[in-house]
Amino acid sequence: MIETHMLSADVVVVGGGLSGVASAIAAARLGARTILVHDRPMLGGNTSSEIRVHAGGADRSGARPHCRESGIMDEIRLEEAARNPQRCAQMWDLILYEKCLQEPNLSLYLNTTCVAAHVRPAETDSQTSVDEPLPSAERAAAAVLRNPQSQIEHIEATRESTEDRFIIRGRFFVDCTGDGRLSVQSGAQWRHGREGPDEYGEPHAQGPDNRTMGASLMWVAEDVGVPVPFTAPSFARKFTDDDLPHRKHIDLDHGYWWIEYGGELDTVKDKEAIRDELMACLMGVWDHVKNGGRHGADNWVLKWFGWLPGHRESRRIIGDLVLTENDLMNSVLFEDRVAHGGWPMDTHPPGGIYSSEPPATFLQMPDIYSIPLRALYSRDVGNLFMAGRCASCTHMAMSSTRLAATGAVMGQAVGTAAAMCCARDCTPRELVQHHIHDLQQQLLRDDQYIIDLPAEDPDDLTRGASVAASSESVGCESHKLLDGVTRMRHGDTHQWASDLQQAMPQWLEIKLPSVREVSQIHLTFDSGFSRPLALTHQDSFNARMFRGPQPETVSDYVIEFGSGGTLTELVRETGNYQRKRVHHIAPVTADTVRITIHRTNGDPSARIYEVRMYA
Ligand SMILES: Cc1cc2nc3c(=O)[nH]c(=O)nc-3n(C[C@H](O)[C@H](O)[C@H](O)COP(=O)(O)OP(=O)(O)OC[C@H]3O[C@@H](n4cnc5c(N)ncnc54)[C@H](O)[C@@H]3O)c2cc1C
């Protein structure tokens, strides 16, 4: 018996991959009543335990040190690394789930699919409905709404397992579905396939055509120490080494991303056919390594393999700005930058495993690049944001921005922006025009990285303060705590580090310009951005990480507040492994704050990037 439930929220996020999770958490933390609608039982999208792609990003798996994502993304990574040294895939899902449950303003609807959107053009009171189930791409492209003022009024979602239907009203909506499903339903303009070089002047554009990168099924395998036979299913494809040019199949522990298919088909309509072919290919490749000659696979067994393909590319929603290859190559510093990326442009031949071309072509940019807010909201639906694979990019730019952690930082940016739009009663476009500085400062306060934009928060009581320390390392002097930058950049450490020859405890003392009432202190520690950090099932990549609390991170510390030479201990913390810590205290008047570090998670120096204080 189908029941209909009426829900409402300030911000409605559809799609619970990393971009959607970060978006929903960011909006909820800023006080927006947020609903996250996700069609699977676990969060994480391509990174979830049912697909098992590891979350990479701007640091190029460690090849570009100090560029790792901070903010919500690092918080999730650090939590997972500390609590999941055993690398259980479902623990990743669990951490994402817990992070969402911990937000009082966030309501999570799992196993719930957004199937329709109801849109109101601004000039008239009449309501335009585009709520037919699964409209064709053609219908959506021709959809009514090219009015810059049109607004999504509510979405419709169904949870088939409980025979429930939800009508969800919202002020702002965020499309993190990967397929752009919400945008299509709301008639937003979108793009699919590859641009030609003339369209945006991209030297490496590979179209124009409607082809994309394909999807993949992954596996996890193990050496059990004794020979174990493998009998391929009857439908498995047959492969020889000659059929797999450029496709190394030496490491057996983690399935091959190049088992890729579907780039020449309809990304949405052919999903079932793509899955069937991928399963036949996965079994065929495993059959080849087990039974097709010397691959050292006799003792190896499949421990897990996916049934749900990870999709790389689908519809991209058109924003006020379309990010291009040239923007990435030239590291354009957009005025409205709110996130960063840095993975090379990584395009794959649409033919996937059946292509004779190399399975990926990498186009490296010299530096990390910025992502502007204008690429993260629809240009024609006034209250629609998007993040992750749906962002407004050309195919070339998307081949870099599609990285999971890059999606997460876009998600944090749009979740924050959506909450600010609610608070200021403005559209995303007006936010860019009138409030971008405030948005950027809020993001920095929440530990999002914005390239070469230092923090200058007028509410931060440490502005104009002076700092003294028990000891310092050369290049890591204590005054750097207050320079507004929270990672190594352009050769400057931007952190205080105590002299590694001197034992703990080490302390810092901050003197405010005058006695002030303090009720919050924010600390940004070092969480080892010189290394990559991800849950990966690939042993060789995992070997480059610390699975546990990161050694550089301060573990045990005490904070005292006071004035006139008398200090009172108000914070005592042990066992910390997070980079950003915010302590709320009962308001106290103080002009002096002393932070004493008693222990790190292994590093001989105490390291802090930033201290902020708020009334
Ligand atoms: C095989 C493969 C290997 C890759 N390798 C890497 C890698 O090594 N490192 C890396 O960082 N990235 C990698 N990527 C890319 C990366 O995984 C994705 O681009 C990234 O996860 C996208 O995140 P997202 O949040 O935008 O979308 P997704 O992770 O796709 O999440 C979107 C979610 O929305 C849900 N959804 C869709 N429609 C609806 C609806 N109507 N209602 C409710 N929910 C809906 C979907 O179920 C999905 O879970 C790889 C991708 C693939 C496929």
Quick tags:
Jelly Rolls; eight-stranded mixed beta sheet; 3 domains; binds flavin-adenine dinucleotide; FAD/NAD(P)-binding domain; seven-stranded antiparallel beta sheet; alpha+beta
What layout of secondary structure does this protein have?
Elements: E1 3-14, H1 18-29, E2 34-37, H2 71-83, H3 89-101, E3 106-109, E4 113-120, E5 128-129, H4 137-141, E6 151-159, E7 164-175, H5 181-185, E8 190-191, H6 197-200, E9 215-216, E10 219-223, E11 260-261, H7 271-291, E12 300-305, E13 310-311, E14 316-317, H8 325-329, E15 337-341, E16 345-347, E17 361-363, E18 369-372, E19 384-386, H9 395-401, H10 404-424, H11 428-445, E20 466-469, E21 496-497, E22 506-525, H12 539-542, E23 554-563, E24 566-573, E25 580-600, E26 607-614
Parallel strand pairs: 1-2, 1-7, 2-3, 7-19
Antiparallel strand pairs: 4-5, 4-6, 6-7, 8-14, 9-11, 9-13, 10-12, 15-18, 16-17, 20-22, 21-26, 22-25, 22-26, 23-24, 23-25
Helix pairs in contact: 1-10, 2-3, 10-11
Bound molecules: flavin-adenine dinucleotide.
What does this structure look like?
The chain has helices spanning 18-29, 71-83, 89-101, 137-141, 181-185, 197-200, 271-291, 325-329, 395-401, 404-424, 428-445, 539-542, and strands at residues 3-14, 34-37, 106-109, 113-120, 128-129, 151-159, 164-175, 190-191, 215-216, 219-223, 260-261, 300-305, 310-311, 316-317, 337-341, 345-347, 361-363, 369-372, 384-386, 466-469, 496-497, 506-525, 554-563, 566-573, 580-600, 607-614. Residues 124-147 have low confidence and may be disordered. The longest helix is centred in the middle third of the chain and has 21 residues, at 271-291. It is built from twelve helices and 26 strands. It has 615 residues and is α+β, with helices and mostly antiparallel strands. It has three domains: 3-193 and 313-445, FAD/NAD(P)-binding domain; 215-311, no CATH class; 466-614, Jelly Rolls (Sandwich), CATH 2.60.120. The termini are far apart. The strands form seven sheets. Strands 1, 2, 3, 4, 5, 6, 7 and 19 form an eight-stranded mixed sheet that branches. Helix 1 links the parallel strand 1 and strand 2. It binds flavin-adenine dinucleotide (FAD). Flavin-adenine dinucleotide binds next to helix 1, strand 4, strand 9, strand 13 and helix 10.
